[in-house]
Every structure is written in C-alpha cells, then in structure tokens.
Amino acid sequence: MNEAMTRRSNTGGREQPDFAYENLRDWLAEAERMGEVTVVRGADTKSEIGMASELVTRSEHADCVVFDDIPGHPPGWRVLVNFFGGRRRNMTLGFPSDYTKVELSEALYAVRMEGRAPMPPKTVATGPVMTNIVEGEDIDVTHFPAPVWHPGDGGAYLGTGCFHVTRDPDTGRINLGTYRSMVHDKCTIGSHISPGKQGRVHRDKYFARGEAMPVCVVIGGDPMTFLAACTELPADMPEYEFVGGLRGAPIRVVTGRHTGLPFPADAEVVIEGFVDPVERRLDGPFGEWTGHYGGTVQMEPVIHVKAIYHRDEPIVMGCPPQRPPDEMCRYRAIIRSAMLRANIEQAGVPGVSAAWAHEVGNSRTLLAVAIRQHYPGHAKQAGHIAAMCHVGAYAGRYVVVVDDDIDVSDLEELMWATTTRSDPASGIDVIRGAWSTPLDPSIEPARKEAGDTTNSRAIIDACRPYHWKDAYPEVNAPPRAVAEAARRKFGWLLDGAGDGRAR
After folding, report:
1. Element (H, E) at 308
2. pLDDT digits (tens, 9 = 90+) for 202-222
3. Which pTM was predicted?
4. 234, exposed or middle or buried, with CB in 10 Å at 0-12, 13-18, 19+?
5. Residue 426, by phi and psi: left (phi above 0), alpha (psi -120 to 50) or beta?
6. Is the pLDDT of residue 1 over 80?
7. Least enclosed by CB within 10 Å: which of 86, 289, 321, 446?
C-alpha cells in the first residue's frame, strides 16, 4: 500500500476539505499570510507580464505573482498569475499543507466517492461583483488589463483564468467551462470552444435554431470553482453543485440582467453577452495547452458584450497555458487523476490501486493506472476503459497500466516498468478514430480542414504477464517500508547535510 493510500485509510477515507477562502480576494489574503505572494509593479501587457508568467508558472515552487501599476490601466487594477503552487496548492483544495500531490488526489477521490453531497447554488439579489455595472456606450473591455501571453499570440486574451457560464437550451442545465477569449474591440471578444465540449454543444444547439447563445465570462472567480470548470465532471454533476458540496455551503450567485445566467456574487469581473450565430472574426494563433500554438489564424464566433460587472480595483486572474509541465498541468493532474480513478472503478474494473494523469502530458496525453491483477486480460481492460472513459476520452494519446508496486505518479518508475515489463509485440493495443481536438499538433492540416480531428491511442500493458506473474523475476529494490526506513535513517546523505565525519 503506498503512502497516500495509507494516509487515506488511516482517516477512514473521509477526510473532508476545509476552505480558508470564499472568493479570490480571500484566497489572496491567505496566500499573502503564507508568504507566497510577490507584487510586480510597472510591467506592461504587451510582453512583460507574459514573459514573467512563463517563467513562474513552470515552477511549482515559485510565488503567486500580482502585477500592479500596469501601464495604461488604473492603479489597483491587477493581474494575478501562478495561483497553484507551493503550500497554497493545498490551501486552494482545502487540505492540510503537508499532503503530497498524490495524497491530495486521493483525498479528492475519497470525497468524490464517499464525501459530501452536491449542493445547489443560492441566488442572492446582489453582491460585490455588482458594485460597478457598465452597459451601453460605456462598455469598454479594453479597460481591463489583458496580456499578450505568448510572443506568437495573435492578440490579447482576457479568457485564460476564467470560466464561461452557459445554459443548455433543451434541458436548462448550467455548465461552467474554460475557453479562451481574444479581445477584438471595446464591445467584442472571441469565443473559441473545441468540438465536443459542453459549451460547444450548447452553442451548436443555439446556432442550429438561428439564435445567439447567452454567455457570462467570469474572470477572477474563486480558484476552486475555476478548477471545477477546468475538469471533466460527470454529466450529472454540475460544477456549482460540485463545489458547493466540497465547501459544505452553497455558492452565492446573482443573475445577469441580459442573459438570466447565474454567476458568482463575489467574482472580480463578469462579461455578459451573446455569441453571434453568424458573425465570425479572425482569432489566434494562441499558445495552447499542448505546448504548441493552437493552429493558424482562423475565423471564430464572437461575443457581443451587453454588460460588464466588476468590483472596485478588480483582479484579472490569468492562467495562460505554457509548454508542459506548467501550472495548468499541476492542478489538472491532481483533480483529473482523482476523477480518472473514479471513472475506471465506476465502469466495474476491480483492483485499481491508483491512477495518475501525468503533468508532462498536461494530464491528458499520458495516463497511468496501477492495478492488482485478478484475472487474464485485467490490465487490457483497465487500459481501454481509462482511454475511453469520461476523463480519458478527449485528446488522449498513451495509457500505461502497471502493477500496484509501481508509484504511477513517478515518471521514472512508470517508464522503468514500461521498458522492462511491457512487450512491444504483444503488449500494445492501438485505438483508432478517437476523440481529439483541432489543437492536436499531430493531426495534419488537410484532415483538420476536412473536419477530421480524430487521433489514435496506445494502450501499453506494463504489468507482469498474468499467466506467469508469480515466476516473474523479483525486483532488486527493498520493499517500500524498508526504503522509508532507509530514508529516515540515512536521508541526510542526500541533502548535503553530511560533514564528512563518521556517524
């Protein structure tokens, strides 16, 4: 049993999160108390904020950075980046500061499977986000600091650390999703959503009726709700309800004047409008989560802004994707790994001891599953389910299934198992025609132009062969308990604490 599983079993599998914040300002105050916030003054949106963000978001130990006194914008109108790192990572998810990333994922898994029931949001008459309401000729999206995040981006993007609120016109179900939004002019921003995503499904339904889609873009919502919006939750688990359940208290929402959509009452900025079913404008390129630019400049729908709601001295939260691993990879890995394990077990696969969606693959393109083998074909079953379940289906590439003596979150252990226990001729299955994205850099332009954005998946069985696993050569490393004892006794040899004298 690995360390995270031991911790979870010792707490009965029912450790509940305890959040120290309700909104982004509460979160920032807590991060400041922890000593993990750095303020940078005078950096511009044209290049400098993007340059600094690339540097810090690729380090899990760097501070959260708040940019203030941004040229061309009022003092106090800030941009915040790199919220998910350091000890504030655990604070964001509501768990103890000494939890490892695997323990965080396992704790979220326990809450997802055994914890609090979902809790619907609570509609209130007003909130801090309604402090300033801008409509009509006064609308000016460019008033807010929107950085050019990557040198090759086609423009400034407000929509990175944001989520879009949409409603299914058939069922009325509210969805929160993270989609990029390029600033076109004072009252128009872009709407780029990949095929198959819930926001795109909603948009396609409205467009099929010849109607504009109502949308609210929340910029600077509380970090936990943002994380939920970034995660493929089950269809029967709306994001507001999921976060309310984690918190043990409903999210307070207000209703948009023009769309009737609910958005958090204490968000920093909300842009309300309608996605035009006809108008298209050039959008991109944009440095995407794959670590490549997301296609060339292309025609995309636009959002016509009808109102802007914002707090005094608003904070724009930025979460620009960089080449993996980066901040986005870190938070997605923890949450998506918990969901991945839940999906596999809910499909009826027994003996799953752990799952990890690796940061280097942006928690999508490299998934690892550890099992205790019960029967022939067990490993292949687990691998195929992982590749095609709700969490694994979109834009995946490789799934590796290993025995439960392997720490699936350790990339070196995973690759060791792959290179020693898998047989290329018999241990790799390939799935063709799987759901991917136009952002996939390995799909040739001609196929994308024809509307074919499918890819293939490799399922790698890196388990000991079931029919002779008991005769498989033993590992020449000590059991985990012995290895832990060695670290406790001789760990000083690794940290430079040795002084050359015998001990």
Report:
1. strand 298-310
2. 999 999 999 999 999 999 999
3. 0.85
4. middle
5. alpha
6. no
7. 446
